[in-house]
Amino acid sequence: RLEYYVELSNFIGTGSDGIPPPTTRRTVEGSATVPSNATIVIGGITVDDVRDTVLKVPLLGDIPLVGELFKRTNNVNNSSKLYVFLTPRIMADPNFNDLKLFSKGPQSEMEIDDDLPDLEPAVIDAPGTMMFQSELPELKTDDSVSGAPPAMEPEFVEVSEVSGS
Question: Which residues, 6 or more positions from 98, have their beta carbon under 8 angstroms from its beta carbon?
Answer without folding.
Answer: 91, 92
